[in-house]
């Protein structure tokens, strides 16, 4: 569109109603596939947050603008893996990353939902924000077309390393798509810091859920 104003959207009920409802499993449908997510109670990363729903929905409905087919995609703070699974279904080479204690549930959900499908096999890896990036993801080898992040701004002690991680991976030609609930001053302060470094644009807002979805790219000099 010619205007830069964000679209206003609603997070659609994309989960399928079930006769049997397990307390720890959520059923979603994206891009024509049913996705079953196992949540776990111990960790923040183990529950599907609204930003993940917003980002999944946006990727599904904007495939022309953001075509993930055969693109290299890195998800940081992948949590339950919903966004990574959707990116896989949309044809990307996905690397889903999170903290060590989240990886077991993340790997389980991703393999369960992508096995026996004719897609690029996703990879699950440990990534602690701001730590060991040069060792684990050397830039000579790793370049991503898209970085996906949802609901990563909540634990306000982790914001400096999160910013450093975004700066590390977001290179010329990379598009960072970030969806988050905006509730606290710290959320907006993080957005401001991001805006001082990158081109940032709000693509969509989901007012009922307080979620904003942003496109972040490197400033070309």
Automatic annotation (TrEMBL):
InterPro entries xref list: Methyltransf_16, SAM-dependent_MTases_sf
Alphabetized UniProt keyword annotations: Methyltransferase, S-adenosyl-L-methionine, Transferase
GO biological process: methylation
Stored Pfam families: Methyltransf_16
First and last residue of the signal peptide: none
Keyword set includes S-adenosyl-L-methionine: yes
Molecular function as annotated in GO: methyltransferase activity
UniProt name for this protein: MT21C methyltransferase
Organism this protein belongs to: Probosciger aterrimus
């Amino acid at each position: 569109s010619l205007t830069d104003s964000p679209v206003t959207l609603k997070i659609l009920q994309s989960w399928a109603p079930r006769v049997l409802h397990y307390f720890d499993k959520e059923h979603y449908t994206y891009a024509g596939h049913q996705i079953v997510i196992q949540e776990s109670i111990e960790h923040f990363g183990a529950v599907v947050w609204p930003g993940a729903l917003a980002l999944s929905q946006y990727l599904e409905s904007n495939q022309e603008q953001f075509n993930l087919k055969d693109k290299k995609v890195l998800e940081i703070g992948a949590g339950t893996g919903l966004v990574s699974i959707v990116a896989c279904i949309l044809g990307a080479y996905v690397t889903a990353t999170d903290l060590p204690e989240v990886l077991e549930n993340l790997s389980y959900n991703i393999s369960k939902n992508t096995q026996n499908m004719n897609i690029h096999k996703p990879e699950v890896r440990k990534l602690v924000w701001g730590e060991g990036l040069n060792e684990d993801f050397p830039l000579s080898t790793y370049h991503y077309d898209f970085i996906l992040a949802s609901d990563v701004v909540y634990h306000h002690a982790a914001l400096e390393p999160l910013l450093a991680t975004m700066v590390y991976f977001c290179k010329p030609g990379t598009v960072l798509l970030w969806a988050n609930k905006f509730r606290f001053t710290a959320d907006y302060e993080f957005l401001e810091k991001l805006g001082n470094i990158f081109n940032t644009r709000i693509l969509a807002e989901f007012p009922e859920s307080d979620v904003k979805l942003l496109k972040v790219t490197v400033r070309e000099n």
